[in-house]
Amino acid sequence: MKKRIRVVVVGCGYFGQKRVQACLQASSSIQLMGVVDLNKQKAKQIGTKYKIAFDTTLSGVLKKISCDAAVIAVPNVYHTSCTIEALSQGLHVLCEKPLAPTSRDADSIVRAAKRYKRFVKTGSNHRFFPSIQKAHELVHQGTIGKILLFKGSIGNNGEHVKNDWFWDKRLSGGGTVIDNGCHLIDIARWFMGDFTTCVGSVGSVYWKKTLVEDTGTGIFTTKQNQQAIISCSWTQWTGYMTIEIWGGKGYILIDSKNGDWLIVGNKDNTHIKKYDVSSIDPSSYQKELEYFASCIQKNTQPLPDVFDGAAVIHLIESVYKSAKEKKEIHI
């Protein structure tokens, strides 16, 4: 039996607590050793509840325990400093998406990962949705041929981020594009490869008090002129994600608004198959952590890696730049 990967979770807010729960659910491969939060009471509450170490700093908690990896789940603005500190302590890192609030910060993490020779995995739990896993399998098998067009929509009603740090660009780096859109941009790159140009549009349509966008769209193009059109918003009242993938031989449609399912059809629309994966346990955070642990055990780089995470941030910035300058951006 392989040794479990010893993990510390940095951040005890909403996403930090989700990561803590995922660590506990992945107990066959993950051993949760401790938590860190600047709010001592939050850290103490979780540490006491699960009988693990806690502290207000990573260096402090590492004086009490030994770890192999850190999960960074703090507001975006702190991703860079927390990730680099963890790497400097000899830990592998899973950093919650987005990798960083700016491309400059993301590039700093890339350099740190090289310097300290540790793995950095960008958080990407959506890759572990059953429907996305099935779609990637079908695309890889060539079921729909070469992808010609990827269209995705993602978002929520905005209540979850209302009046929180997500509304403060200094802390978040942006609005729904960096919050929600990063998921679909990552998936589009996973399916299609790199993009070379972008046209973007962003705006505040409903949540007028926020200084970041509540609606945004990016049109990305590859060297082969394949397109990915990605829209996101904090005004999708029913949530959450739909994807259309159109290939030279057929298509895949994904809908997570009502369960989780996908439809696969051929070019002539004469053979259509529906996969309802709603009954599969949607434990994407647990599956992602188990995959992360497995890669560390095998000494192989988990994906998406630090370069993928940085590439997504560069694409997000191209959306913002295009919207501001009202022109196509070459990446």
Architecture blueprint of SSEs:
Layout: E1 5-10, H1 14-25, E2 30-36, H2 40-50, E3 53-55, H3 58-61, E4 69-72, H4 79-88, E5 92-95, H5 103-116, E6 120-122, H6 130-140, E7 147-155, H7 169-172, H8 176-192, E8 197-203, E9 215-221, E10 227-233, E11 241-247, E12 250-255, E13 261-266, E14 272-276, H9 284-298, H10 306-325, E15 329-330
Parallel strand pairs: 1-2, 1-4, 2-3, 4-5, 5-6, 7-10
Antiparallel strand pairs: 7-11, 8-9, 8-15, 9-10, 11-12, 12-13, 13-14
Helix pairs in contact: 1-9, 4-5, 5-10, 8-10
Short summary of the structure?
The chain has helices at residues 14-25, 40-50, 58-61, 79-88, 103-116, 130-140, 169-172, 176-192, 284-298, 306-325; strands at 5-10, 30-36, 53-55, 69-72, 92-95, 120-122, 147-155, 197-203, 215-221, 227-233, 241-247, 250-255, 261-266, 272-276, 329-330.
Description:
This protein is an alpha/beta fold. The chain has two domains: 141 residues, NAD(P)-binding Rossmann-like Domain (Rossmann fold, 3-Layer(aba) Sandwich); 170 residues, Dihydrodipicolinate Reductase, domain 2. 36% of the residues lie in helices and 25% in strands. The protein has ten helices and 15 strands. The strands form two sheets. It has a nine-stranded mixed beta sheet. Strand 5, helix 5 and strand 6 form a beta-alpha-beta unit. Helix 4 packs parallel to helix 5. The longest helix is centred in the last third of the chain and has 20 residues. The mean pLDDT is 96.
